[in-house]
Records
---
Amino acid sequence: MVLQLLGINHKTAPVQIREKVSFSDNILSEALLALKTYDSIEENLILSTCNRTEIYAVVKEASKGLRSLKIFISDFHKILQDEIHRYFYFFSGIEVARHLFRVISSLDSQILGETQIFGQVKQAYFKAKECKTIGKNLICLFEEAIKVGKRVRKETNIGEGAVSISSVAVELTKKIFEDLKEKNALIIGAGKVGEITVKNFYSRGINSVFVANRTYEKAETIASKFGGKAIKFEHIFEALSEMDIVISSVSSPHFILSKDQIELIMEKRKFKPLFFIDLGVPRNIDPKINEIRNVYLYDIDDLNLVRDKNIKKRKIEAKKADKILEECVLRYAKKNNCWCQGK
Amino acid sequence: MSIPISQKYKSMLMYNFFFNLTSFFYLLSFLFYIVSFIKQKDKIRILGFFINLIGFFTHSFNLILRTIILEILPISNLYESLILFSWLIMLIKILILDRKKFQFSGFFVFPVVLFLIFFASNLDSDIKPPLPMLKSHWLGIHGLLCFLSYSLFTISFIFAILYLLQERELKYKRIGIFFFQLPSLELLDRISYKTILFGFLFLTLGIFSGSIWAKEVWGNYWRQDPKLILSLIMWLFYLFYLCTRLFLGWQAEERAYLSLGGFLITLFTYLGTDYFLKGLHSYL
């Protein structure tokens, strides 16, 4: 008996291939049961997310098993064997365990340290259990993997530090203000990025959200989602004295806020700190306002800078995680050496 | 009850041993904190914290031992006051500043404490009976209150510096070690303010207790003495600081500079009367 894995992910294949071979929730049971009937397949499990599709199997005979896995994919998704050869990777024996441990710890993810994958692996495992396509070998492997995933999260900071633009904006805000509960945010522009950022602030318990947009109705729609208030675009200037955080993402050929304006506002608010996040390209806010006392302005490049630093830190954590993984793989190999020798 | 001389001598040896032990543990703990600060590793920091606790324990033991031998709070000379001063700063660090939300700020107390201890180690540590005039419970109350206020002002000073550093990093987008290891500007300012608020309270009580004591021994509440005048200046300065926040609406940055100024006055009040303006309060 041999443990095998045939898979595809964001590193080996472009999205147009990945989408062809993914298994959506509604066909997953059918696929699991279908694969079970193939030659030499003893146990099988399918993990399918937007970035990867992986089939884990315990097969009676190595060469027959691999052939079955390939035929299954080409049968089920109607793709050529040629494409499978080009885009899929194949592991067997202990390498399968090593790969799974990496996946569940999100070391193999596109965004290092993201948390979703842990739940996705668990879901795939439960689904296979439900369909009774896995036996004691894969159960043992996946139970171990879940433990490994938990341990890596606990012992490293791989998930720490914001790595998306909107969460970086929140992280920066938390370096200036302690309590978001007492702060007001104004969002200028009802675009997608702006909305995600507001959502992030909202979930961190910001006191209130104001939305300004050239089309007032759109501002109202977004404001209502976050229990906020819509204001007219012309009234931005008056509203500023009540705000602590201003996020702007409009497409405008010229600056919508100038240094003189902000100087006036700051005097009015006795130089109480005001944090601007300019997500617009071209920039919406005159960069010179950063010179004003207690005004902090971050544009999209500044946010990217913070994000890159956080990614770098995650990479260092990933090295720590690798060490933990090696230890787990060794232990796992020792415990199950009778059947996961591979090849 | 007084301890026989021979026994006193033995305690002295033990005393110096514990002083060295305290310095050693603080220094070791400081090194652990530095490594953890640069490498950003929490485990090393926790280890540093435990070593710090051991150091604080020997430090406390030191203070208690000396108090038992002298039968009053050991504060009658510069050496003793430095030990108490550094102990109070450490106490505040361990009780308050090591909480998670303050992130790494507690670490910055070390340079000050180590400096005080280093300073003390160069002074005469012999236990001498204090002047009979000082043998009063008022000495303990008055001294403790005043040094509590000095300690709080010192911590305010440290947080003011941290505020200014973090402010520069955020303003000029130098996303470095401070960015990741220090709490928000608002929190740094809040701590700097609150330590002054409480420090001012203790200073007020300290001055009051001193004048009651003065009435008992000198017959009047006030005497022309450099330390008294400096304390009054210090008291007025911190009163002004509090007003800028409560009534004048000054912002954090200006307050941070005020806190730096206040610390200089505190230092001068503490040491100036020994080195420049001799008076009734001189230690040396």
---
Amino acid sequence: MSQTNPAVEKLRAQFEGAIQAESEFRGETTVTLRPQDLVAVARFLRDDPELRFNHLSNLTAVDWSKYPGHAAKERFSTVYQLLSTRSGQRLTLKVPAPSSDSPIVPSLTGLWPGANWPEREVYDLMGVKFDGHPDLRRILLPFNWPNHPLRKEIPRGGETVPFSMTWEDEEFASFGKQIVEAKAVPQVPPKQADANKHMILNMGPHHPATHGVLRVVVELDGERVVAAYPDLGYLHSGFEKQGESIRYKDFTLYTDRADYVSSMCTNLSYSLAVEKLMGVDIPRRAQVIRVIMAELQRLASHLLWLGTSVLDSAGVSHALLMYCFREREQILDILELVSGARLTTTYIRPGGVWRDVPPSFVERVQDVLDAFPKRIDEYERMVTHNPVWKSRTIGIGKLTQAQALAMSVTGPALRATGLAFDYRKTRPYSGYEAYDFEIPTATDGDLFARYLCRVAEMRQSLRIIEQALKNLPDGPVWTADRKMSLPPRQELDTSMEALIHHFKLNTEGFVPPVGEVYECAESPRGETGFYLVSDGTANPYRLHFRTPSFVNLQATDLMARGGFIADLVLIIGSVDITLGDVDR
Amino acid sequence: MDWINLILIPAIKSVILVVVLLTGFAYLTWVERKLIGRFQQRIGPNRAWKFGLGHPIADALKMIFKEETIPNYTDKILFALGPGLALAPSLLIFAVIPVGPTLRMFGKDIPFVVADVNIGLLWVLAVGGIGTYGTVLGGWASNNKYSLLGALRTSAQMLSYELPMGILIIALLLTTALGTADGSGTLNLVEIVRMDRPWWLWAWIWLAFPLYFICMLAETGRKPFDFPETENELVAGYQTEYGSIKFALYYMTEYLHVLGASGVAVSVFFGGWRGPFVEQFPGLGLLYFTIKLLAMVFLFIWASASVPRPRYDQLLKFCWTFLFPAALIYMAITAVGVVLL
């Protein structure tokens, strides 16, 4: 095996015998470790001054029990994607869990507190336990769910859903009684909260400020937030399990429904991952169209964020919400023009884009470019210099750079702490390296900094779109690689192979080689990544969906502590979550 | 003879006033929705009848015919009492506001005010203070944490803002000493409206209006100071558990507060029903009063569409560290001026 990765060299030198195997696929190195070495190796990788893999970008697990040629080995293994925010290097760690009945691996929460929720997710869906995890409970499914659904022997669908809201449930039985007889309440969940000293306020799942069905249990001292415990899973629909039973190209539709506010960007990350797995190249025109669409979507998403964020602080009568919607409408019209749908576009697909853009596309995008700078100026006049808005946001919900990295926060929330980390620059994809744009950063890490970052990003998106529109090349918009593209019509008349190929692609779908990849893109919310394991069939063997909303939402508690309940509302807004993206 | 003056005429006037106020409230919601719609580049209500004028009626019917629910674990008596306690004072404020000059009708001089009493402004403050009980009791009786927080916020907010408001009113009362013949001043709103003042006194009085307006926003609990309900934080604050007509009563209270506060402000700061040619055609007074009132209401709505909401503690801090001292200074200067003049 060719030895290329200096990180692996260093690891070999430092930890003798820790590395069980090393593999390389599509330029990504995967290192298999013994469980007992995981924490030490991860700490070394994080702290080594040369390597500095300081960002835990993804954490998941795979059940290998049905994988061809894997029968004798450990059934489960956890997978970690580490990234160096400085060099953009990525390293994948794989840790086989020793026992197949009750697999257990050491927890990384000591190194990255942000590993908390992803580990809980793995425990919830896969049943892998984490040694040293502070609070290993189910996270997406109800506490009394009978199985771990991502295990291969669990069938898809058909379960009876055990609703947790029954009178036998101590939590449910205590609802509504807490003011009348506080002492009678045994202990309201979460167990860490002190119900006798503080007021436990249940925000959501139906609350005007949670932007969807998010429930936050807030521990209050007066109006001060002692702690906030988000409770997720109300929208969980098992995308990952579903992905294992459908073809690669069919899953594109699910990516729309996850982050429904920025479907183009999620489409793009998924397409990138699948294309990497397939090893195909995408024609220039498709790439430029992808960039334009992704940046338009970023604008639309940030506009929605801006509108709802001001809504959070001002109430429905404030005019900015509708201003933002007016502009977003213009973008959604373009999305509709190219894809036929406004929200769930499924336009960017593995292999290229659905169809070429219609002739009026350039003109319509040019309209956006002409109109938007003035509009953004107008918002800034309305909000940026408004003393009330400033007093609401400056110094509130602070997150330091170290905290943000520890919590695996990505996107504008990370950039607001001063770190210019953006996948479009750090690991350019779709030809982003060819565009001239900046990564806006701010230093304070508070709500106002996040706001400034997002507004500045909107201007940068316009810059990118302008350049892309100017240099929109001619040519095909679907890959020429026959692994993914249909043979041209005239070949079907003459070539038997082409006919078979056509039939196979349309019925079975394209078939990637055996291997596993992780690829991500910068969505408006942060890092949207896909981890795909292929067993050489047309369906993914394992599909993990790393969503920025889920990971970023973890930092809410950290940001909200000590603030007021009114701040909590703004903080949840500033994380910019989409609940479909959180729960999947 | 006497019973006509003492009972019949005030009773008729009250009935007319209440009817006008209650329909006025309904159409105020229409005005607000239309205006907010325009601010937000929307059309606003336009389904029922022309210009959506049927919407308030439809809303009222819906509210009345909805099922009334009283949740478990509430204090049922207080829960039912809350909306009434809130609504009554907001109507009572109007008793002392002169909506027009004295008109000669049916062979009698009829002043366009329900109660021409000496304690006019004091009445406004007192009754306005009682209104807080309705909100606080309703929020407390709901036994809902959001309601509780909303109710507590209400009490703190109202109490805090009553201080600068009261002090501003005292200052304005001091200026009335310059208008009365014997220099003793008056609390009577009817007399205050009638008073002739030199231009420099008007200028000085208007100087206090921005402060007073902020107090008014906070007192009425309107956006951007709608902390008792803050839908983004507290769902609906003190009225979370209320539905159907009880909810409508609270809703009514809020709008009547707006109307009442605007009426007082118009009377104290902008000469009430007075305007050009009102001596010749006293009926014009009603028109002037309505126009001024609507202009004031427009200010309320404008503020709600353009200013984000501060945080609750910031609002209180603003009151105690800026508004209260500013009002005190204003009053002190006024007092010195009045004594010297």
